[in-house]
Amino acid sequence: MAHAKESFISKYIFSFDHKMIGKQYFTLAMIMGFIGGILAVLIRLQLGFPSQPWPFLENLFPVGMASGIMTPEFYVSLFTMHGTIMVFFLLSLLPVSGFGNFLIPLQIGARDMAFPFLNMLSFWTVVPGAIIIIISFFVEGGAAASGWTAYPPLSAIRSAIPGSGAGQTLWLVGMIFFVASFTMGGLNFVVTILNLRTKGLRLMRMPLTTWAQFVVGILGLLSFPALAAGAILLTFDRSLGTSFFLPAGIFIGDTLMPHEGGTPLLWQHLFWFLGHPEVYIIMLPAMGFTSDVLATFCRRPIFGYRSMVYAIMAIGTLSFLVWGHHMFVSGMSPFLGSLFVVTTLAIAIPSAVKAFNWLFTIAKAKIRFTTAALFALAVVSLFVTGGLTGIFLGTNATDIQLHDTYFVVGHFHFIMAGAGLFGAFAAVYFWYPKMFGRKLNERIGKIHFWITFVAYYAVFFPMHYLGVAGMMRRIYDPNVYEYLQPLQPVNLFITISAFVLFAGQLLFLWNYFVSMRRGETATGNPWDAAGLEWSTPAKPGHGNWEGDIPEVHRWPYDYSRPDRKRDFVGQWES
Amino acid sequence: MADEPRAKEGGFQGVAMAISLWGIVLLSVFFFLRYDVPELASDRGYLDTLFYVILGITGAAYILYQVALGWVIYRFRGNRAGAASSHWHESHKLEWTWTLGTALILVPIVWTGLVHWERVKAPAPDDAVAVMAVGAQFQWDFQYPGADGEFGRFDPQLYSIENQIGLDRDDPAASDDWVLTNQLVLPVGRPARILLRSKDVQHAFFLPNFRVKQDLVPGMLTEVVFTPVKTGSYEVACAELCGLGHYRMRAFLEVMDEADYQAWLAENAPGS
User: Fold this and answer.
1) Is the same domain home to B166 and B247?
2) H or E segment to which residue B2 belongs
């Protein structure tokens, strides 16, 4: 299967090789994540030092920070784009499109994805989306400024906020590119996993990472079209004068709008019908990585494999039945709200199954504390912290006070962003040798881990205090409110911690790019892991296995069998 | 298999991980105790009670789980003497225990939450003080219905600087209506029914001290019902992103005792 010779373009640009496409996604996601991180630093700069002038920043942002002071409209654009970029272009692209493409064929024993051309196309569809999103910062009025949720009428009416001009249009176009790409990817995942598994790889022998990607593929296919539909309707409302989301009587900028007959709640339903499954599109792969990494470095089978698989399916199914918990105080029928409480809190059950299974995987282990293992252990901690705070928000009665406060910001940065990000880090440190034939530097990796872990708790845990004390999200200057003024020291502490957190990620970027050329060379199976992907050569070529694809004889977690001398048995070994 | 370098991958990192998890628990709980919900000024104290109950349950789960996680990491670090890992990976008894256990803990939380929700959403009694809050970028207008107790019709065509809420003066019910900007006054001890509508984008009517939050949706009329139980001056906030001035869309709620309220009405309401 080894290809004789490939030109630079077919190898690195328009490659059909799932591994190269995976790496292209990594590069794109890291660039976007870096930009998203800078936006976060600017957000925290304003909240830590409200309206303080920073003259040197005027050179970088001549409009948004004229004379060095951040304008409110620039602040709104910052958190809008921070959310959009991080949720879609980092936390969806890296674990799902990046690792999904890279790992699925390796883990199921396939030469490539089912549709290599579609795969290449999906990457080159998301690239213009990312470019459009970045360009939107430089158009008149600045980037979109209606939150990552883009609630109309704010997002629909151009005069409602400067960002609702060209910036919002570009946001919608960028999202449609993203959805198109992600839908192609999801289709590819599902078809590949169902059809291309090697001999002996029954579904119940698949690694939990592949199980997660399989369910994620289905979630993406079913939920993203709702966002695409919503985005197209919103574009119509903005540009063609339709009124899907706009009722009669809207009066903005001394002008009565000609729309009539629509309702903003329709957008919220469409958006959150995607938005909530999207959270699990981010979470589930991280859970899969964590399980695979923990089993390897605990030298133990994952505890309760079957219940882990059922938990993934249960979470995936429930994720479609909970979107209304974002809308408890929206004016939606109170009866509907009650139904969503029941489905939402039901998710705690499969989540608890995951948390306890991990705990029992770590118990009776012989843990090797590699950087990947540390990040996976941190996922377990973050997942529990963030999951528990969800109970306050999923209960509609307590959500009334906490809704749209920093309690929510803290909650989702733990459960979704935190577990997703740390899961992705665990995965990068773990599978990097398979990607580049070299290891990441473990010493720098450990420093990166400790800065990230400690700073992450320092940034996001105190946000719960702010939320309990009543500080709203998305406000440019909390000191306008007297009752929020005593919280300024907490905001300052979070800001300083956020700077440290961001600086720590520069270490990772440096490690990632330098280790490609200078890292310690790795063997085909540097961690003594049992998953099928580790039976490939150190740096597998196009087609993955040089000879025949190995047959699978067992599950991927056969560690420390009492009847074997060596402490693992690879899936490929009989 | 070279085991020597791996042995080193156990000592310091495992101990550090355990200590940092325990440290995080200690510090996060210690600082949490220093912050509390804003002072309660309404009859919705039962929501606070539920909040504290959930805080107790989740707080206990948080502490127990993180401490246990730190302990297993410490106890089963790879370099300990006689370290060996076990192949044991299934126990239906244990798995059913934590599945059903979690479900059992959740049932009373869900039930209490739903009962409280019913109470919050109960229709206003007839003697409630009714006020219409009109949200706009970036101000609150509070329309009092006057002596007839009925809100006059509004017409978006009539929105203007002088007539912020577009009141249709041709409507007889509107004749005694009057409007306050960024200030709401309510009597203590009587249920208040605040009707909410928006002129432009979405807003949210947030009374931090009253455990009240409700979105204002253009084209819809929403409402909240609560009873102030403490006199004083409180802040009203907008909690839904509504534009560049969202952060300064602030108003005040003045809660007076009945006599002061009547005197204030007599002084301020037109024609009274």
Assistant:
1) yes
2) none
In terms of CA atoms, which chain B residue is nearest residue A567? Answer: B85
Q: Which residue, among A164, A318, A381, would best test binding to B if mutated, counting the most B CBs under 10 Å from its CB?
A: A381
- B87 domain residue, yes or no: no
Checking ipTM against 0.85, whether it exceeds it is yes
Same domain, yes or no: B109 and B159: no
Q: Is residue B192 part of a domain?
A: yes
- A74: three-class secondary structure by DSSP: helix
Region at A15 (left for phi over 0; alpha for psi -120 to 50; beta for the rest)? beta
Min distance B88 CA to chain A CA atoms (Å): 8
Report how far residue A386's alpha carbon sits from residue B56's, in angstroms, rounded to the nearest whole number.
Answer: 16
Cβ neighbors of A534 (< 8 A, separation 6 or more) are A434, A524, A525, A527, A570
The residue extents of the domains of chain A are 16-535
Q: Do A252 and B200 touch (CB under 8 A)?
A: yes
Domain A16-535 fold is Cytochrome C Oxidase; Chain A (1.20.210)
d(CA B122, CA A6): 71
Domain of B223: which CATH number? 2.60.40.420
A331 contacts on B by Cβ (under 8 Å): 214-215, 217, 220, 222
Q: Cβ A401–B213 below 8 Å, yes or no?
A: yes
For B112-128, the DSSP string reads HHHHHHHHHTSPPPTTP
With respect to residue B12, please indicate whether it lies within any of the assigned structural domains.
yes
Tell me whether residues A446 and B13 touch, CB distance under 8 A.
Answer: yes
Are the CB atoms for A414 and A470 separated by under 8 Å?
no
Give residue A282's identity as a one-letter amino acid code. I
- Provide Rg for chain A, Cα atoms: 24
**Do B144 and B226 fall within a single domain?**
yes
pLDDT band at A7 (very low <50, low <70, confident <90, very high): confident
pTM for the whole structure: 0.95
Nearest to A190 by CA among A276, A104, A281, A273: A104
Distance from CA of A239 to the nearest CA of B (A): 18
My answer on whether B162 and B241 are in the same domain is: yes
Low-confidence winner among A278-292, B7-21, B231-245, B249-263 (lowest mean pLDDT): B7-21
* Whether B60 and B171 share a structural domain: no
Structural domain harbouring B230 = 129-268
- Number of domains into which chain B is organized: 2
> Do B197 and B215 share a domain, yes or no?
yes
**Which of B33, B35, B94, B120 would best serve as a mutation to test chain A binding (most A beta carbons within 10 A)?**
B35
Per-residue pLDDT of A128-146, as tens digits, reads 999 999 999 999 999 999 9
Chain B residues with CB inside 8 Å of A359's CB? 65, 68-69, 72
Amino acid at A455: A
The answer to whether the peptide bond before residue A461 is cis (omega within 30 degrees of 0) is no
- Is there a single domain that holds both residue B133 and residue B248? yes
Q: Are residues B154 and B114 in the same domain?
A: no
- What local confidence, expressed as pLDDT, does residue B12 receive? 87
